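ok so I'm stuck.
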Amino acid sequence: MADNRAAILTGAKAAHTLHRDLGIREQLERGNASRIDVFSAIAKLGATLMFQPLDKLLGAYLPSEEPGVLITTKRQLPVQRFTGAHELGHHYMRHEPSLDDENILRRSPFATTGTADRQEREADAFASMFLTPAWLVALLLQRQGWSARQLADPAYMYQASLRLGTSYSATCYALERHKVISRGQRERLIDIEPKQIKRQFLGGYEPPDWHVDVWLLTERDEGSLIEGGRNDLFVVKLRENSGAGYLWNFDQLRDAGFALVDDDREDTSPDAIGGALMRKVTARSEDRLQGEVTLRESRPWAADVPLHQLHLRYDLRGPESPGMWEPELRRVLQAA
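replied:
not stuck anymore, here's the structure
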């Protein structure tokens, strides 16, 4: 058991050291992303990153003079990211070759019991701490204006998982580890079906596929980079001062290649005359996977003088497709 604890500490310390060496915390605090770019970290450490439809494996680490990392294309982006972090741990800690299957998801990264060998325990702990360090959770809470108490609510926990780029269950365990939620709260959260959580955001709208993620975007996401999947749904919920003649214009969403599948208004002050409404629009991307959009709340006769605006950047290419990681492929082609 002492050896297991030592392996966990080694992996966690390595993740902390790599955050520092790559300046990851400073980059995220200065920028508008909310998740750690694990694939970029793999490339920065000199390993070739490839995505392939692997059978019975989630990933592999192949050390050599030109080390390589393989990640399956048969799983969703959060699993690809965790697998990438696990293989990055192998590479950074100079481990032996490793072929990694579903067991990396089943094992608890910080359990001191079990049969996994030392290097797998180190890589498990590394992956978890690399993707969800305490400082990143604190940064997310600050940006979103969430309290620790709110994260005991499955809706908030689900939205936190989307922004961190980790699965819902992995996020629950990570926040328990950081003492944001209790063990009992984590157990209750994990028992809730994701479909039940998504229904809260979509209201009466029924998507063709409930496996898609559903993002709730508010004014707290101003300037953010939204990193999601090709078929994700986006519920934009904004206060609208219609009593004073101000309306949110969602034509910019359509111009950016999004289809509006639902549009609703909720009276937040039914007893007040001319009070503000809550505008809720649900959209999905139809033909653009990357770009940016600015929504404006203005009077129709003074569209150039907005009362409020919401600017978002988006990258909806996940999960990664077969082949060399695209940014690295572009670099190789440019150097040829």
